[in-house]
Amino acid sequence: MKKKIRAIQYGVGPIGASLVRLMREKQAIEVIGAIDHDPAKVGRDLGEVAGASDAPWGIKISEETDVLGEGADVVVHSTSSSLPAVMDQLSACMAEESCVVSTCEELAYPFRKYPDLAAKLDAQAKSWGVALVGTGVNPGFVMDKLVLTLGAAAQRVDSVRVVRIVNASKRRMPLQKKVGAGLSVEEFKQKVAAGVIKHHGLPESIAMVADGLGMEIEEITETIEPVIAPEAVRTEFLEVAPGQAAGVHQIARGIVGGKPQIYMELQMYVGAPESSDTIELSGQPNLVLTLPGGTHGDIATAALVVNAIPAILAAPAGLKTSRDLPLCFFPASAKP
């Protein structure tokens, strides 16, 4: 019998906790350690911090990255949306000859925004003989991988339109805060200008789709506006008064000849009437795919990251994207 996949969790916030709980369900994975720099978590049992029903696990959360030296096959990384902010973390993981699956949105397709950092990571991965990928529900699946998969049924694709509507009312508190729910319009705009309020990943998805479909995009634009609450909304974590921001309305466009060839719209706000994901490809033939109820961001992100583990371990060394990997379901009963 082959040995189990040895995994380390890097970052034990709400998403990291869901990732490590899901990994524990897989017979083929052995979680051997965890890293987090929050003093309130360091030294505590990973299962207890992750809210697992079978805690304690006997695995302590460490602040030090020397736990990376314990011979993990893969590090599941979930600390930041910013690629520059996690470069040292990713490099440290690869230097211990561990593959990496990360939720960092800017790692999902960094070649246009951060070509130098992408080249550096690719070179480092190849020098250590490992592979790394950034993935999740969006970017990583709904607005890029799924678009390209649908495109496999087309002989020609002239333009792309993707609209994702997310009711944030039932999502975790950090996400509700991240989309600005409960802020005044002025506060919302100030935080957008400061880069605090934003769903990261739409430009990365446009770049991935453009390259996958062979579209020569000249420019990628993005706008971020508040969704104004018409009436009071209460969630488990906060209240939104009429006239306040309920969340974000982001639109990104891939421009060719002054016209948008790729259009991606995200409405993520508390009180949205119904979540849904819709992909429209205009071409030969026209194709439309709608997921009623949408793709649950927290659940699907954990699934996509953990399901990517076998694929990244089997991939050639280097920086990969979800476009490159044959992603599929990773059964809990799968043998090592």
Primary descriptors:
336 residues; alpha/beta; 7-stranded parallel sheet; 6-stranded mixed sheet
Short description:
With 336 residues, the protein is of the alpha/beta class. Helix content is 28%, strand content 28%. It has helices at 14-24, 46-49, 83-95, 115-128, 145-151, 173-178, 185-193, 202-213, 297-307, 309-314; strands at 5-10, 29-35, 61-62, 74-77, 99-102, 131-134, 156-167, 219-228, 233-234, 239-240, 245-256, 259-269, 276-284, 287-292, 318-320.
Describe the 3D structure.
- By secondary structure, this protein is α/β, with parallel strands linked by helices.
- It contains 10 helices and 15 strands.
- The strands form 3 sheets. It has a 7-stranded parallel sheet, sandwiched between helices. A 6-stranded mixed sheet has the order 8-11-12-7-13-14.
